[in-house]
Amino acid sequence: MRIRTSHLLALAVLVMVVALLAAGGAPKPVPAGLSGAGTAVSWAVPVLRLLGDAAAIATGGAVLAAVVLLPATNGELGEQGLRACQDAAFAAGMWAVASIGGLIVTAAVILGIPLSELTARAADAGSLNQVRALAVAVVFTAVLAVVLSGCRTVATARVALVLAAAALTAPLLTGHGAIERTAFWSVLATASLVIHVFAATTWIGGLGSLLRYARGEIGAVERFSRLALICAVSIGVTGLLTAEIHLGGRDDGWGLITQWVTTGYGALVFAKAAAFAVLVSIGWWHRRATLPALAADRPAAFWRLAAVELGLMAATVGLAVALSRTP
């Protein structure tokens, strides 16, 4: 069973839009008599964020495959490793473009002005932390695309992996975690979010790369299986910690169940938790049934279930973007 990238993106966008509308994070029309960026520009913020996240996952997964999953000879990448790096170079370019677009529309929305007035307010836009973080991401992704376009060795791919990690980190420093009330909780929330995003990128991107580049590599599947377990544990722990911090657990005690079901943010966290539980169950079934079948030269069940798993992951990415835009 093969799954197209366009179908995954469409699924993620659909889930994101529905989640934003249901949870109260969707852009609101500007009241009459007031200026603003406009509804279309406001909607462009989460859409470009989703496209950037998808490109980041594709980039990270392909580079991870070249460094960890696929075979190399004397430090030189094999045929599939070279293919992965070339795909990653293209994805990094798309990541840079989405980041540039996100930078522009984010500045317009925060300043509350139409795009046509943004040039005149360039100094104000440049002072925004969110814009600065995205500008850093643009630099890293542009350099990353150049490095990957000429990547031939595992050593160069490792450098690219570090650059991808840096590009991932910059925008996370200005999200929900950065606006906590005290320095301690801000640092804890941000650190937890960074680990969460790294683990999710590795898990989703790694699975996508496995489906694209390593269908005949049993060793790659086994290596990814071990890595996926670490990612799942990291995502579960950091997801719970981050949600409790944002939902008020730091003040009112752990287990603040009412806010998980009475606020839009909490409802999306609950939906993400449910999707995560299904993904963990799929992982358990892989280890119990499909991996032994794959080792016995019966690969169909593993690849079918992996494709379904990747589809569910795409939906979860849509939920994650909606969560980042929900008060």
UniProtKB/TrEMBL annotation:
A Pfam family annotated for this chain is CopD
Q: Describe its membrane topology.
A: Multi-pass membrane protein
Q: Which residues form the Copper resistance protein D domain?
A: 220-323
InterPro entries found in the cross-reference section? CopC/D (IPR032694), Cu-R_CopD_dom (IPR008457)
- Keyword Transmembrane tagged: yes
Which compartments does it reside in? Cell membrane
- Residue spans crossing the bilayer: 49-70, 90-113, 133-151, 158-179, 185-206, 227-245, 265-285, 305-324
UniProt superkingdom: Bacteria
Q: Which UniProt keywords apply?
A: Cell membrane, Membrane, Transmembrane, Transmembrane helix
List the residue ranges forming a coiled coil, or say none: none
- Please give the chief subcellular localization of this protein: membrane
Q: Where is the signal peptide?
A: none
Record protein name field: Copper resistance protein D domain-containing protein
From what organism does this protein derive?
A: Kribbella alba
